[in-house]
Protein backbone atom coordinates (compact mmCIF):
# COMPACT_ATOMS: atom_id res chain seq x y z
CA UNK A 1 0.00 0.00 0.00
CA UNK A 2 1.23 3.51 -0.89
CA UNK A 3 0.96 6.24 1.75
CA UNK A 4 0.09 9.12 -0.59
CA UNK A 5 -0.81 9.24 -4.28
CA UNK A 6 -0.66 12.70 -5.89
CA UNK A 7 -2.54 13.18 -9.17
CA UNK A 8 -1.81 16.04 -11.54
CA UNK A 9 -3.54 17.35 -14.65
CA UNK A 10 -1.29 19.98 -16.24
CA UNK A 11 2.44 19.36 -16.34
CA UNK A 12 3.52 23.00 -16.59
CA UNK A 13 1.07 24.22 -13.95
CA UNK A 14 1.36 21.51 -11.33
CA UNK A 15 4.42 19.33 -11.55
CA UNK A 16 6.71 21.56 -9.46
CA UNK A 17 4.02 21.71 -6.78
CA UNK A 18 3.71 17.91 -6.85
CA UNK A 19 7.47 17.57 -6.47
CA UNK A 20 7.46 20.09 -3.61
CA UNK A 21 4.70 18.32 -1.67
CA UNK A 22 6.09 14.85 -2.40
CA UNK A 23 9.58 15.84 -1.22
CA UNK A 24 8.21 17.21 2.05
CA UNK A 25 6.20 14.05 2.68
CA UNK A 26 9.10 11.75 1.79
CA UNK A 27 11.37 13.63 4.17
CA UNK A 28 8.78 12.85 6.85
CA UNK A 29 9.17 9.16 6.02
CA UNK A 30 6.15 8.49 3.79
CA UNK A 31 5.99 6.68 0.47
CA UNK A 32 4.63 8.96 -2.27
CA UNK A 33 3.71 8.35 -5.91
CA UNK A 34 2.84 10.93 -8.58
CA UNK A 35 0.62 10.08 -11.57
CA UNK A 36 -1.31 11.92 -14.28
CA UNK A 37 -5.11 11.89 -14.02
CA UNK A 38 -5.29 10.26 -17.49
CA UNK A 39 -3.03 7.37 -16.56
CA UNK A 40 -5.01 4.10 -16.24
CA UNK A 41 -2.32 2.77 -13.90
CA UNK A 42 -3.58 4.92 -11.03
CA UNK A 43 -6.47 2.45 -10.80
CA UNK A 44 -4.05 -0.18 -9.44
CA UNK A 45 -2.48 2.03 -6.76
CA UNK A 46 -3.96 1.67 -3.28
CA UNK A 47 -3.09 4.86 -1.37
CA UNK A 48 -3.97 5.73 2.18
CA UNK A 49 -4.38 9.37 1.11
CA UNK A 50 -5.25 10.60 -2.37
CA UNK A 51 -4.37 14.16 -3.47
CA UNK A 52 -6.23 15.43 -6.55
CA UNK A 53 -5.89 18.66 -8.61
CA UNK A 54 -9.62 19.44 -8.34
CA UNK A 55 -12.81 17.64 -7.40
CA UNK A 56 -16.12 19.09 -8.55
CA UNK A 57 -18.63 16.29 -9.07
CA UNK A 58 -19.48 12.59 -9.09
CA UNK A 59 -17.92 12.06 -12.51
CA UNK A 60 -14.55 13.32 -11.32
CA UNK A 61 -14.86 11.36 -8.10
CA UNK A 62 -15.19 8.14 -10.11
CA UNK A 63 -12.54 9.16 -12.64
CA UNK A 64 -9.94 10.24 -10.09
CA UNK A 65 -10.64 8.32 -6.91
CA UNK A 66 -12.14 4.96 -7.83
CA UNK A 67 -9.53 2.21 -7.65
CA UNK A 68 -9.75 -1.58 -7.81
CA UNK A 69 -10.25 -1.85 -4.04
CA UNK A 70 -12.81 1.02 -3.81
CA UNK A 71 -10.70 2.11 -0.85
CA UNK A 72 -10.09 5.84 -1.28
CA UNK A 73 -11.66 7.59 1.70
CA UNK A 74 -9.05 10.24 2.51
CA UNK A 75 -9.09 12.72 -0.38
CA UNK A 76 -7.37 16.12 -0.43
CA UNK A 77 -8.50 18.52 -3.17
CA UNK A 78 -5.83 21.07 -4.12
CA UNK A 79 -8.37 23.04 -6.19
CA UNK A 80 -6.05 24.72 -8.69
CA UNK A 81 -8.86 26.85 -10.16
CA UNK A 82 -9.50 29.37 -7.39
CA UNK A 83 -9.27 32.74 -9.11
CA UNK A 84 -12.51 32.70 -11.09
CA UNK A 85 -14.71 35.06 -13.08
CA UNK A 86 -16.79 37.79 -11.47
CA UNK A 87 -20.01 36.12 -12.63
CA UNK A 88 -19.46 32.80 -10.84
CA UNK A 89 -22.65 31.55 -9.17
CA UNK A 90 -23.18 29.04 -6.38
CA UNK A 91 -24.21 26.39 -8.91
CA UNK A 92 -21.17 26.97 -11.13
CA UNK A 93 -19.18 23.95 -12.37
CA UNK A 94 -16.17 25.12 -10.32
CA UNK A 95 -18.01 24.54 -7.03
CA UNK A 96 -17.84 21.01 -5.55
CA UNK A 97 -21.18 19.21 -5.66
CA UNK A 98 -22.57 15.94 -4.26
CA UNK A 99 -20.08 13.66 -2.54
CA UNK A 100 -17.21 15.87 -3.71
CA UNK A 101 -18.11 18.23 -0.85
CA UNK A 102 -16.83 15.70 1.66
CA UNK A 103 -13.23 15.67 0.49
CA UNK A 104 -10.79 17.91 2.31
CA UNK A 105 -10.57 21.09 0.24
CA UNK A 106 -7.65 23.51 0.10
CA UNK A 107 -8.41 27.24 0.01
CA UNK A 108 -5.61 29.70 -0.69
CA UNK A 109 -7.35 32.66 0.93
CA UNK A 110 -10.65 33.85 2.31
CA UNK A 111 -12.19 34.29 -1.16
CA UNK A 112 -12.15 30.55 -1.86
CA UNK A 113 -13.02 29.62 1.73
CA UNK A 114 -16.17 31.75 1.49
CA UNK A 115 -17.11 30.09 -1.80
CA UNK A 116 -16.74 26.67 -0.19
CA UNK A 117 -19.00 27.66 2.69
CA UNK A 118 -21.60 29.07 0.31
CA UNK A 119 -22.07 25.67 -1.37
CA UNK A 120 -22.37 23.74 1.88
CA UNK A 121 -18.90 22.28 2.41
CA UNK A 122 -18.43 21.49 6.13
CA UNK A 123 -16.09 23.86 7.97
CA UNK A 124 -14.00 20.86 9.10
CA UNK A 125 -13.26 20.09 5.45
CA UNK A 126 -12.06 23.61 4.54
CA UNK A 127 -8.36 24.32 5.04
CA UNK A 128 -6.96 27.82 4.39
CA UNK A 129 -3.27 27.30 3.65
CA UNK A 130 -2.19 29.91 1.12
CA UNK A 131 -1.17 28.93 -2.39
CA UNK A 132 1.36 26.16 -2.85
CA UNK A 133 2.14 27.68 -6.25
CA UNK A 134 3.54 30.73 -4.45
CA UNK A 135 5.71 28.78 -2.01
CA UNK A 136 8.64 28.64 -4.40
CA UNK A 137 8.62 32.44 -4.48
CA UNK A 138 9.61 32.53 -0.80
CA UNK A 139 13.11 33.75 0.07
CA UNK A 140 14.38 30.30 1.08
CA UNK A 141 13.95 29.11 -2.52
CA UNK A 142 15.96 31.95 -4.07
CA UNK A 143 18.62 29.56 -5.42
CA UNK A 144 16.04 27.10 -6.75
CA UNK A 145 15.50 28.96 -10.03
CA UNK A 146 17.75 29.31 -13.06
CA UNK A 147 19.54 32.62 -13.34
CA UNK A 148 18.93 35.12 -16.12
CA UNK A 149 22.34 34.23 -17.55
CA UNK A 150 21.50 30.52 -17.80
CA UNK A 151 18.13 31.21 -19.43
CA UNK A 152 19.85 33.61 -21.84
CA UNK A 153 22.36 30.96 -22.92
CA UNK A 154 19.64 28.38 -23.44
CA UNK A 155 17.46 30.57 -25.66
CA UNK A 156 20.13 32.80 -27.21
CA UNK A 157 18.93 35.94 -25.46
CA UNK A 158 20.91 39.02 -24.48
CA UNK A 159 21.37 38.80 -20.69
CA UNK A 160 22.41 42.45 -20.49
CA UNK A 161 19.25 43.79 -22.09
CA UNK A 162 15.98 44.54 -20.30
CA UNK A 163 13.60 41.59 -20.67
CA UNK A 164 10.00 42.60 -21.39
CA UNK A 165 7.68 39.66 -20.73
CA UNK A 166 4.16 39.34 -22.13
CA UNK A 167 2.19 36.73 -20.19
CA UNK A 168 -0.36 35.27 -22.59
CA UNK A 169 -3.71 33.85 -21.56
CA UNK A 170 -5.15 33.36 -25.03
CA UNK A 171 -6.20 29.78 -24.32
CA UNK A 172 -9.58 30.37 -25.97
CA UNK A 173 -8.14 31.96 -29.11
CA UNK A 174 -7.66 30.24 -32.45
CA UNK A 175 -10.22 27.50 -31.72
CA UNK A 176 -12.20 25.31 -34.10
CA UNK A 177 -15.99 25.11 -34.18
CA UNK A 178 -15.82 21.60 -32.69
CA UNK A 179 -13.75 22.88 -29.77
CA UNK A 180 -16.10 25.81 -29.18
CA UNK A 181 -19.13 23.54 -29.06
CA UNK A 182 -17.37 21.44 -26.44
CA UNK A 183 -16.32 24.52 -24.44
CA UNK A 184 -19.88 25.89 -24.49
CA UNK A 185 -21.04 22.76 -22.67
CA UNK A 186 -18.86 23.89 -19.74
CA UNK A 187 -19.27 27.64 -20.06
CA UNK A 188 -22.11 29.50 -21.86
CA UNK A 189 -19.78 32.47 -22.50
CA UNK A 190 -17.10 30.40 -24.27
CA UNK A 191 -17.93 31.62 -27.76
CA UNK A 192 -18.07 35.26 -26.67
CA UNK A 193 -14.72 34.94 -24.90
CA UNK A 194 -13.25 33.20 -27.96
CA UNK A 195 -14.18 36.21 -30.12
CA UNK A 196 -12.77 38.62 -27.54
CA UNK A 197 -9.56 36.57 -27.33
CA UNK A 198 -9.10 36.45 -31.11
CA UNK A 199 -9.57 40.20 -31.48
CA UNK A 200 -7.35 41.09 -28.53
CA UNK A 201 -4.62 38.70 -29.66
CA UNK A 202 -4.32 40.44 -33.02
CA UNK A 203 -4.13 43.87 -31.41
CA UNK A 204 -1.55 42.72 -28.86
CA UNK A 205 0.57 41.26 -31.68
CA UNK A 206 0.59 44.68 -33.38
CA UNK A 207 1.60 46.38 -30.13
CA UNK A 208 4.40 43.92 -29.37
CA UNK A 209 5.93 44.10 -32.83
CA UNK A 210 5.80 47.88 -32.89
CA UNK A 211 7.42 48.08 -29.44
CA UNK A 212 10.12 45.55 -30.35
CA UNK A 213 11.02 47.71 -33.36
CA UNK A 214 10.88 50.89 -31.27
CA UNK A 215 13.19 49.45 -28.57
CA UNK A 216 15.76 47.23 -30.33
CA UNK A 217 17.96 47.26 -27.22
CA UNK A 218 15.28 45.42 -25.19
CA UNK A 219 14.27 41.74 -25.44
CA UNK A 220 10.56 41.01 -25.82
CA UNK A 221 9.42 37.54 -24.72
CA UNK A 222 5.97 36.16 -25.48
CA UNK A 223 5.10 33.31 -23.12
CA UNK A 224 2.12 31.28 -24.42
CA UNK A 225 -0.47 29.89 -22.02
CA UNK A 226 0.07 26.12 -21.51
CA UNK A 227 -3.33 25.42 -23.10
CA UNK A 228 -2.86 27.92 -25.92
CA UNK A 229 -2.76 27.11 -29.63
CA UNK A 230 -0.11 29.73 -30.27
CA UNK A 231 -1.12 31.86 -33.22
CA UNK A 232 1.22 31.87 -36.24
CA UNK A 233 1.27 35.65 -36.16
CA UNK A 234 3.71 35.61 -33.22
CA UNK A 235 6.13 33.24 -34.95
CA UNK A 236 6.02 35.52 -37.99
CA UNK A 237 7.06 38.45 -35.78
CA UNK A 238 10.15 36.49 -34.62
CA UNK A 239 11.26 36.25 -38.27
CA UNK A 240 10.98 40.00 -38.78
CA UNK A 241 12.15 41.16 -35.36
CA UNK A 242 15.32 39.59 -33.87
CA UNK A 243 14.62 40.87 -30.34
CA UNK A 244 11.17 39.23 -30.17
CA UNK A 245 10.97 35.62 -28.93
CA UNK A 246 8.19 33.08 -28.35
CA UNK A 247 9.16 30.76 -25.49
CA UNK A 248 6.80 28.30 -23.81
CA UNK A 249 9.36 26.44 -21.71
CA UNK A 250 9.52 26.67 -17.92
CA UNK A 251 6.96 27.74 -15.38
CA UNK A 252 5.54 31.21 -14.98
CA UNK A 253 7.41 31.38 -11.67
CA UNK A 254 10.72 30.99 -13.48
CA UNK A 255 9.91 33.81 -15.90
CA UNK A 256 8.72 36.05 -13.08
CA UNK A 257 12.16 35.67 -11.50
CA UNK A 258 14.20 36.57 -14.59
CA UNK A 259 11.95 39.14 -16.33
CA UNK A 260 12.60 42.82 -15.72
CA UNK A 261 9.12 44.04 -16.60
CA UNK A 262 5.92 42.17 -17.41
CA UNK A 263 2.60 42.71 -19.15
CA UNK A 264 -0.56 40.77 -18.46
CA UNK A 265 -3.88 40.61 -20.29
CA UNK A 266 -6.10 38.24 -18.30
CA UNK A 267 -3.78 35.89 -16.42
CA UNK A 268 -3.86 35.07 -12.71
CA UNK A 269 -0.09 34.67 -12.98
CA UNK A 270 -0.01 38.30 -11.96
CA UNK A 271 0.41 36.74 -8.50
CA UNK A 272 3.80 35.27 -9.50
CA UNK A 273 4.96 38.73 -10.50
CA UNK A 274 3.62 40.27 -7.30
CA UNK A 275 5.48 37.80 -5.09
CA UNK A 276 8.60 38.12 -7.25
CA UNK A 277 8.35 41.88 -6.64
CA UNK A 278 8.41 42.68 -10.35
CA UNK A 279 6.60 45.48 -12.13
CA UNK A 280 3.55 44.38 -14.10
CA UNK A 281 1.02 46.23 -16.24
CA UNK A 282 -2.44 45.13 -17.35
CA UNK A 283 -2.92 45.44 -21.11
CA UNK A 284 -6.49 45.93 -22.35
CA UNK A 285 -6.65 47.17 -25.97
CA UNK A 286 -10.26 45.94 -26.02
CA UNK A 287 -12.47 46.36 -22.96
CA UNK A 288 -13.48 43.15 -21.19
CA UNK A 289 -17.16 43.05 -20.13
CA UNK A 290 -17.62 42.81 -16.37
CA UNK A 291 -19.32 39.40 -16.61
CA UNK A 292 -16.21 37.99 -18.34
CA UNK A 293 -13.66 39.58 -16.02
CA UNK A 294 -11.45 37.48 -13.74
CA UNK A 295 -12.24 38.44 -10.16
CA UNK A 296 -8.77 39.48 -8.99
CA UNK A 297 -8.37 41.86 -11.98
CA UNK A 298 -11.78 43.49 -11.61
CA UNK A 299 -11.63 47.31 -11.78
CA UNK A 300 -7.81 47.48 -11.92
CA UNK A 301 -6.04 50.19 -13.89
CA UNK A 302 -4.99 49.07 -17.39
CA UNK A 303 -3.20 50.28 -20.52
CA UNK A 304 -5.80 50.86 -23.22
CA UNK A 305 -3.77 52.43 -26.04
CA UNK A 306 -0.49 51.66 -27.76
CA UNK A 307 0.84 55.05 -26.70
CA UNK A 308 0.28 54.16 -23.03
CA UNK A 309 1.92 50.79 -23.64
CA UNK A 310 4.98 52.34 -25.28
CA UNK A 311 5.34 54.96 -22.55
CA UNK A 312 5.22 52.29 -19.84
CA UNK A 313 8.16 50.48 -21.41
CA UNK A 314 10.44 53.49 -21.08
CA UNK A 315 8.97 54.74 -17.78
CA UNK A 316 10.28 53.21 -14.57
CA UNK A 317 7.77 54.90 -12.25
CA UNK A 318 5.38 52.15 -11.29
CA UNK A 319 2.65 51.14 -8.85
CA UNK A 320 1.53 47.51 -8.82
CA UNK A 321 -2.10 47.37 -10.05
CA UNK A 322 -3.31 45.16 -7.17
CA UNK A 323 -2.92 46.00 -3.48
CA UNK A 324 -1.24 43.69 -0.98
CA UNK A 325 -4.53 43.40 0.94
CA UNK A 326 -6.36 42.18 -2.14
CA UNK A 327 -3.62 39.67 -2.95
CA UNK A 328 -3.91 38.31 0.59
CA UNK A 329 -7.70 37.94 0.26
CA UNK A 330 -7.25 35.71 -2.78
CA UNK A 331 -3.88 34.04 -2.13
CA UNK A 332 -3.59 33.99 1.64
CA UNK A 333 -0.97 35.28 4.05
CA UNK A 334 2.73 34.93 3.33
CA UNK A 335 3.96 35.21 6.92
CA UNK A 336 2.62 31.80 7.96
CA UNK A 337 3.96 28.29 7.39
CA UNK A 338 4.41 27.52 3.66
CA UNK A 339 1.31 26.03 2.08
CA UNK A 340 3.07 22.80 1.08
CA UNK A 341 3.95 22.11 4.72
CA UNK A 342 0.38 22.81 5.84
CA UNK A 343 -0.97 20.49 3.12
CA UNK A 344 1.54 17.83 4.17
CA UNK A 345 0.23 18.25 7.74
CA UNK A 346 -3.31 17.60 6.49
CA UNK A 347 -2.17 14.43 4.71
CA UNK A 348 -0.35 13.31 7.84
CA UNK A 349 -3.38 13.93 10.07
CA UNK A 350 -5.52 11.87 7.69
CA UNK A 351 -2.94 9.08 7.85
CA UNK A 352 -2.98 9.19 11.65
CA UNK A 353 -6.76 9.42 11.92
CA UNK A 354 -6.68 12.92 13.42
CA UNK A 355 -8.79 14.12 10.48
CA UNK A 356 -11.72 12.09 9.25
CA UNK A 357 -12.18 10.80 5.72
CA UNK A 358 -15.51 9.91 4.13
CA UNK A 359 -17.03 6.62 2.97
CA UNK A 360 -17.50 7.61 -0.66
CA UNK A 361 -20.02 5.58 -2.63
CA UNK A 362 -18.36 4.57 -5.90
CA UNK A 363 -21.61 3.27 -7.37
CA UNK A 364 -23.31 -0.07 -7.85
CA UNK A 365 -21.07 -0.97 -10.76
CA UNK A 366 -18.64 -3.87 -10.59
CA UNK A 367 -15.19 -2.83 -9.42
CA UNK A 368 -13.80 -4.13 -12.72
CA UNK A 369 -15.76 -1.37 -14.50
CA UNK A 370 -13.05 1.27 -14.16
CA UNK A 371 -15.10 4.42 -14.81
CA UNK A 372 -18.62 3.09 -14.23
CA UNK A 373 -19.58 3.20 -17.91
CA UNK A 374 -22.71 1.51 -19.24
CA UNK A 375 -22.33 -1.58 -21.39
CA UNK A 376 -19.81 -4.40 -21.40
CA UNK A 377 -18.15 -3.10 -24.56
CA UNK A 378 -17.50 0.35 -23.10
CA UNK A 379 -16.08 -1.17 -19.91
CA UNK A 380 -13.70 -3.33 -21.95
CA UNK A 381 -12.41 -0.21 -23.75
CA UNK A 382 -10.95 1.12 -20.50
CA UNK A 383 -9.03 -2.12 -19.97
CA UNK A 384 -7.73 -1.92 -23.54
CA UNK A 385 -6.37 1.51 -22.66
CA UNK A 386 -3.80 -0.11 -20.40
CA UNK A 387 -1.74 -1.92 -23.10
CA UNK A 388 -2.45 1.01 -25.44
CA UNK A 389 -0.96 3.57 -23.03
CA UNK A 390 1.91 1.23 -22.21
CA UNK A 391 2.75 0.93 -25.89
CA UNK A 392 2.55 4.70 -26.45
CA UNK A 393 4.77 5.46 -23.49
CA UNK A 394 7.34 2.75 -24.27
CA UNK A 395 7.77 3.88 -27.87
CA UNK A 396 6.94 7.58 -27.33
CA UNK A 397 4.19 7.41 -29.93
CA UNK A 398 2.63 10.79 -30.65
CA UNK A 399 -0.09 9.94 -33.18
CA UNK A 400 -2.02 6.71 -33.35
CA UNK A 401 -5.40 5.94 -34.89
CA UNK A 402 -7.25 4.14 -32.11
CA UNK A 403 -10.23 2.57 -33.91
CA UNK A 404 -12.57 2.22 -30.95
CA UNK A 405 -12.42 5.68 -29.41
CA UNK A 406 -11.14 9.17 -30.21
CA UNK A 407 -7.70 8.43 -28.84
CA UNK A 408 -5.70 10.76 -31.09
CA UNK A 409 -6.52 13.64 -28.74
CA UNK A 410 -5.72 11.57 -25.65
CA UNK A 411 -2.37 10.51 -27.08
CA UNK A 412 -1.53 14.16 -27.70
CA UNK A 413 -2.30 14.96 -24.07
CA UNK A 414 -0.37 11.90 -22.97
CA UNK A 415 2.64 13.04 -24.97
CA UNK A 416 2.55 16.56 -23.52
CA UNK A 417 1.89 15.72 -19.89
CA UNK A 418 3.56 12.36 -19.30
CA UNK A 419 6.57 11.60 -21.51
CA UNK A 420 9.78 12.23 -19.59
CA UNK A 421 7.88 13.27 -16.49
CA UNK A 422 9.76 10.93 -14.15
CA UNK A 423 13.10 12.55 -15.00
CA UNK A 424 11.64 16.02 -14.62
CA UNK A 425 10.14 15.20 -11.22
CA UNK A 426 13.46 13.73 -10.10
CA UNK A 427 15.32 16.91 -11.08
CA UNK A 428 12.83 19.09 -9.24
CA UNK A 429 12.91 16.91 -6.14
CA UNK A 430 16.69 16.94 -6.00
CA UNK A 431 16.73 20.75 -6.08
CA UNK A 432 13.83 21.06 -3.64
CA UNK A 433 15.31 18.45 -1.31
CA UNK A 434 18.53 20.43 -1.02
CA UNK A 435 16.58 23.49 0.11
CA UNK A 436 14.29 21.65 2.52
CA UNK A 437 17.06 19.68 4.18
CA UNK A 438 18.94 22.87 4.91
CA UNK A 439 15.88 24.88 5.97
CA UNK A 440 13.77 22.55 8.10
CA UNK A 441 14.05 19.83 10.67
CA UNK A 442 11.82 16.94 9.61
CA UNK A 443 10.53 14.34 11.97
CA UNK A 444 7.71 11.84 11.55
| Major sheet attributes | 6 strands, parallel
Element order: H for helix, E for strand:
EHEEHEEHEHEHHEHEHEHEHHHHHH
Note the overall shape: globular
**Helix run count:** 15
Range of helix content: 40-55%
Strand order of the largest sheet: 2-1-3-4-5-6
Which structural class should the secondary elements be placed in? alpha/beta
Give the terminus-to-terminus CA distance.
18 Å
Quote the average pLDDT: 91
Beta-strand share of residues: 5-15%
Low-confidence stretches at least 5 residues in length (pLDDT < 50)? none
Number of strands: 11
Evaluate the radius of gyration: 22 Å
Could you describe the 3D structure shown?
This protein is an alpha/beta fold and about 450 residues long. Helix content is about 40%, strand content about 10%. The protein is built from 15 helices and eleven strands. It has a six-stranded parallel beta sheet with strand order 2-1-3-4-5-6, sandwiched between helices. Strands 9-8-7-10-11 form a five-stranded parallel beta sheet, with helices on both faces. Strand 8, helix 7 and strand 9 form a beta-alpha-beta unit. Helix 1 crosses helix 12 and helix 1 crosses helix 15. The chain starts with a strand and ends in a 5-residue tail after the last helix.
Amino acid sequence: MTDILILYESRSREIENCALLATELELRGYEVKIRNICSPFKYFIKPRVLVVPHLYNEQQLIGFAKNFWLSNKNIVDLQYEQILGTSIKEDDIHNPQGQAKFAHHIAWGEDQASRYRSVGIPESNIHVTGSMSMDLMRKEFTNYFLTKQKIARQFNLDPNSEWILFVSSFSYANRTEEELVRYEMLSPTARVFNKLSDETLKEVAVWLEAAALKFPDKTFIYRPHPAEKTHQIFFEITKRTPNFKVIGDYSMRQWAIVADKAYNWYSTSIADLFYAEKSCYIVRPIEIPHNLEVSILSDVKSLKTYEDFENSISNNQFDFPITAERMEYFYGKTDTEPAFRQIADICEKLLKGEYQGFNFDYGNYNRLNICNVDGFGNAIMYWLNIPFYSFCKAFRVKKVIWPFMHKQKVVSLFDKNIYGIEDEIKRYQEKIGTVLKSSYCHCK
